[in-house]
Amino acid sequence: MDKQHNGQRVVVGLSGGVDSAVTAWLLKQQGYEVIGIFMKNWEDDDDSEFCSSNIDFVDAAAVADVIGIEIEHVNFAAEYKDRVFAEFLREYQAGRTPNPDILCNAEIKFKAFLDHALRLGAEKIATGHYARVRLNAATGQHELLKGLDPSKDQSYFLHRLNQAQLSKTLFPVGELLKTEVRRLALEIGLPNAKKKDSTGICFIGERPFRDFLNRYIAKEPGPIKDEKGRTIGQHVGLSFYTLGQRQGLGIGGLKTKGAQKGGGEHAPWFVARKDMEKNTLWVVQGHEHPWLQSFALTAQDASWVAGAAPAAGQFTSKTRYRQLDAPCTLAAGAGEAFSLNFPGPQWAVTPGQSAVLYDGDVCLGGGVIAA
């Protein structure tokens, strides 16, 4: 056991999943005093088939029992509704496609949860995210790094964390591959070792997204038009669609002669533009249609891990999660807003999503795509 951590209190966010369970076990092995916290962030329909927080808490409590740590159930639903969900709805009503997981990390997991942990006398918090924190000896700053497992790296979702937050945060599974995490969970005998990873937005769960949004946003039907301006269908409301969307357009069987490159008579349709003023959804045929390609973007509401924007220059970026890093040039004068230029086309760059900047494995921060 690593005695250097003896007596240091760490509060771990136990979600009921395998990653946070192994996180807690690893920290206990390293000699930390570990306390588990289960965060309840949503309770509007907690008794429904789609919201699994009751099951997740049972799993988290079972994990705590096996590891031999205390667990506390904390309700952040009010904070979540004010800081995350309200913003989520505002963005959708404005025709953008927000990423609530990014906001949840910035406002709940590394703000409300961190504050709560510090009140419990914790010196650090830990989560099961696949990312790493490194103290740069030369600059004295904490750096956010990608997780070592490239298929699971979650630094994209954590890019709004600042120096104060990173200095208090541990990401133990960020040093491991997911296969190793699963293997450890089985070896330890964790009750959730084979539990499948959760997907999707926490408050929506596995339910159809449009059904959920229907409860909060009124439908405003309008025309669906192709690039020639012909009306080829009707949408249910612009808030219910995102750029690059292929499913659920209701125009799949339509034939169009002379479609663009990548198109054809039976080529799939994709959402390409949303005109909020005229309540019109523009669609194109073919994945490679020029309307779906961007060589530049602007982003706003920037957050930089170092506390200030990096100097202009060559970097890589992601404009959506699960995307390979794309080479880009950061324009001079980056601050609260910034511009990126790309040597190759980027597909379906979507307002409301985040553009996140990297220097190798180091996540520098990012902003919300405006155009």
Classified by CATH, the class of the largest domain is Alpha Beta
Structural class: alpha/beta
Distance between the termini: 52 Å
- Write the CATH fold name of the largest domain: Rossmann fold
- Helix run count: 7
Question: Share of helix among residues?
Answer: 10-25%
Assembly type: single chain
Count of distinct structural domains: 3
Strand content: 25-35%
Uncertain stretches of 5 or more adjacent residues? 256-263
Order of secondary-structure elements: EHEHEHHEEEHEHHEEEEEEEEEE
> What value does the average pLDDT take?
91
Radius of gyration: 22 Å
Query: Going across the major beta sheet, what is the strand order?
Result: 12-15-14-13-16-17
Number of strands: 17
CATH superfamily of the largest domain: HUPs
How many strands, which pairing sense, and closed or not: the largest β-sheet?
Answer: 6 strands, antiparallel, barrel
- Which descriptor suits the 3D outline? globular
Name the CATH architecture of the largest domain: 3-Layer(aba) Sandwich
